[in-house]
Amino acid sequence: MIKRFSVIYIGSSKCELIIGQRGKGTINILDRVSYPIRFGSQSFTKGFIDFKLVYALCQTINDYISMSKTFDVESIRIVGTTALREAKNQLYILEQIRINTGGYRVEILDQEEEIHLIYRHMVSKCENEYDIIGSENKDQMMAAISSGNLSVALLKNGIIDYHQTAELGYLKMRHFLRSIEENTERFETLLNEFIGINTREISENIRKRKIHRLFVSSHEVEMIARLYGCHEIKDFYDLDVEGFAALCNQTINLTMNQLMRKFPSLRQNEAETLNHTLILYLKLIKETGVKKLTLIPMSIGDAIMDDHFQVMRTQRLKEWIEKGAYQSAIKIGEKYQVSLKHAKQIEMLSQRIFDALKKHHEMGKRERLLLSMLSYLQGVGMMINSKDYWIQSRHIIENTDLIGISGHEKDVMGLVSELVKSQVIEPEIHIKNSEADKYLQVAKLTAILKLALALDQSDQQKVKKISCRVKEEELLIEVSTGINFQLEEYFFKYSAYTMEKIYGIKPILKIKRVEL
């Protein structure tokens, strides 16, 4: 068990080192250092990051590595987020960092992983005061405002059932609208309109709820709390909306230089993006109608440190995110008018087959979750085009925000949703070794889902009981039904071929007739 660990976080405007040690039920921070960088300003405007900045960063990373070693850390993790993720020359940057730091590699967090890491950290910081994930019958909202994105999660009974991300981070907005800002006297009006256009769907979903409490996290929380009048460093800050609005009224029409004169404690980079962030906050307050809001400082480095050490709590929060992913899939199915009775039946059937084949597919809880979600998602394209709905379903799945589900996993689900309509899934001899695991995962899940769909082909939930077991080279599936099952029998035989080709196991269907 690792006792000392350091994380180096490469963000849009800073590179931070945090060195931590496992304590009794807590994490002891041994050292924390931050150095300003300008990766976001280049990545978001030019699409490229200048190598002069990269070489300067390498020196900083080397210093951080040396500092980490003086504390005898057992592991060093280097991570990057939006600015590096969106840089077109990312590949070359990462290679130069590896070469110039003695072989250390940077791990780029994908957007989904970054967001659910932030949400988990938000909960961990204020769960003793607010039972966010245990609240029943109360709608809550969590929002994370990073340099590149605004992410919103709506919670029902403590579980996320809606999640959406918009490219409205304060730094990205600032650089996108800089030329307009310099040539208008009422920039806040323009900015409000820009935000409104890009948060239309988010706003529509918020208005369907009665939000009880709003939790917001951003890099500027401590600075905003300081301007509000909270001078003590805390894990979170409870602010009155009226007082917050009064603060915004003091700043909203001021230029960067005017802000720095009015608030001498503001640094230039803080003054540059202050109003962009405050207007986003005001937008969230207006849509939710809350009277109080809870602000939680955003720190990717601290979130990773917490995730690394707090094993039991982290597992509980990971399970909470997974429940959110599952509920989000159901909500998306409802949005696209999927038959929930059919989807629930497919889920039950596919889970039984999945469990029976456990020794033959060697997939785990994560794939089981994806299979459950696919039961509600594989038919979403029907609302758009019933003729080739599986193609539409794949597009929707791959391009919809699903909390806690990575881009890779969305690709897997999208492919499965399309391939369930294929008669044969032939192995591709030209497949690259790096893609082999993904291809096998897709094929295995597809074979299971095809059988489950066949068993409810009529969408009448004819199967009342089902038992599945593998005997030698056969998958014996016994169903009890009191309704004519000929249509399902036909499609079962049609779908069994895929299972036989992928698993080498022949599905055998036995029907037990029962009276209804």
Looking at this protein, list some descriptive labels.
globular; alpha/beta; five-stranded mixed sheet; 516 residues; 3 domains; Hypothetical protein af1432; six-stranded mixed sheet; 22 helices; Nucleotidyltransferase, domain 5
Describe this structure in words.
With 516 residues, the protein is an alpha/beta fold. It has three domains: 4-109, ATPase, nucleotide binding domain (Nucleotidyltransferase, domain 5), CATH 3.30.420.40; 112-308, 2-Layer Sandwich (Nucleotidyltransferase, domain 5); 336-513, Orthogonal Bundle (Hypothetical protein af1432), CATH 1.10.3210. It is built from 22 helices and 14 strands. The chain has helices at 39-43, 51-70, 82-86, 90-100, 111-126, 170-176, 178-181, 187-198, 200-207, 221-228, 241-251, 256-262, 268-288, 300-309, 311-335, 340-356, 358-361, 365-377, 389-398, 407-419, 433-454, 486-503, and strands spanning 4-10, 14-22, 27-36, 75-80, 106-108, 139-145, 150-156, 159-166, 211-218, 237-240, 292-297, 465-471, 474-481, 506-513. Strands 8-7-6-9-11-10 form a six-stranded mixed beta sheet, with helices on both faces. Strands 3-2-1-4-5 form a five-stranded mixed beta sheet, with helices on both faces. Strands 12-13-14 form a three-stranded mixed beta sheet. A hairpin with a 3-residue loop joins strand 1 and strand 2 (14-22). Helix 8 (187-198) crosses helix 13 (268-288) and helix 19 (389-398) packs antiparallel against helix 20. The mean pLDDT is 88.
